[in-house]
């Protein structure tokens, strides 16, 4: 990942494909993703940060200046570029996995993990944080409820689903993700082969 470089340490599993974290805002994709990358000794990137760097604008500025369709197009290009790099951990924006072209790119080149959380937990995490253009409304919780209903069927297409647990630290959640990836690999559910190469 372009945002960070790291070296795999002896005894660590090696990533064969990039792990792509998907889910609604507030699910913990960035905080969990950083811990996950550290566990594997690989790079981490946040697609929202990469988009802002590429555009030279904040995401709210991109939305207000160019609109959501233009943002989604740029988002898809950035995610495609990141997936072409060496395997790492990628945290994506809440709407990225809804775009069918982005979803296809992730399916082809990565292993997607849905961090699933209930609306109450999500709202606790995002209600007082700026920089969420979709929540700049009179009733942001209602927007989250609507987004959850509309986007969950798309998130459910992810390779792996891991439920967010109230009170779990990002480190604990990262380890839950690792366990889920290993279980997915053992099941042989993917026709693309294992995500992890375990040390021998």
TrEMBL record:
GO terms for cellular component: cytosol. Substrate binds at residues 48, 72, 94, 151. Binds 1 Mg(2+) ion per subunit. InterPro entries: P-loop_NTPase, Shikimate/glucono_kinase, Shikimate_kinase/TSH1, Shikimate_kinase_CS. Its cofactor is Mg(2+). Mg(2+) binds at residue 30. Keywords: Amino-acid biosynthesis, Aromatic amino acid biosynthesis, ATP-binding, Cytoplasm, Kinase, Magnesium, Metal-binding, Nucleotide-binding, Transferase. GO terms for molecular function: ATP binding; magnesium ion binding; shikimate kinase activity. It is found in: Cytoplasm. Pfam families: SKI. Belongs to the shikimate kinase family. This is Shikimate kinase.
């Amino acid at each position: 990942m372009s945002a960070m470089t790291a070296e795999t340490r002896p005894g660590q599993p090696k990533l064969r494909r990039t792990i792509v974290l998907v889910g609604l805002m507030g699910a913990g994709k960035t905080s969990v993703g950083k811990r996950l990358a550290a566990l594997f000794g690989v790079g981490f990137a946040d697609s929202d940060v990469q988009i802002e760097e590429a555009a030279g604008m904040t995401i709210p500025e991109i939305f207000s200046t160019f609109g959501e369709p233009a943002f989604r197009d740029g988002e898809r290009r950035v995610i495609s570029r990141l997936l072409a790099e060496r395997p790492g951990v990628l945290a994506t924006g809440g709407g990225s996995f809804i775009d069918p072209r982005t979803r296809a790119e992730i399916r082809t080149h990565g292993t997607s993990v849905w961090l699933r959380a209930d609306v109450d937990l999500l709202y606790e995490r995002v209600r007082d944080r700026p920089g969420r253009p979709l929540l700049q409304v009179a009733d942001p919780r209602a927007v989250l409820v609507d987004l959850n209903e509309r986007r969950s069927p798309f998130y459910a297409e992810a390779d792996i689903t891991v439920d967010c647990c109230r009170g779990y630290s990002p480190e604990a959640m990262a380890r839950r993700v690792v366990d889920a990836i290993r279980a997915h690999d053992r099941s042989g559910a993917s026709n693309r082969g294992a995500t992890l190469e375990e040390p021998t």
